[in-house]
User: Fold this.
Amino acid sequence: MTPLVRLFIRQGLFGLALGLIFAILVVGFNVANLRHLVQNVDGGYMAFWLLAFFSGSVFGGAHIAITVMMMQWKSEDEHQKEK
Assistant:
């Protein structure tokens, strides 16, 4: 597996973990009464997992984008020196 694909997978999984932590904190602190929704409404746990998944997708995409933008740019001269 190429290093770039490995980088994307690793950073994406890190972002998904951040999204899960974010969803746990949002429900744990009862923001917008979401704890009541999750515990007392049919399908409330589905709402939690959707919140976790989509916030994880956003955090994962943002984390990948930040990592790619922080990568060093090599000029063509530097590429030719490596060969």
About this structure: The two ends are 22 Å apart (CA to CA). The mean pLDDT is 90. The chain is about 80% helix and 0% strand.
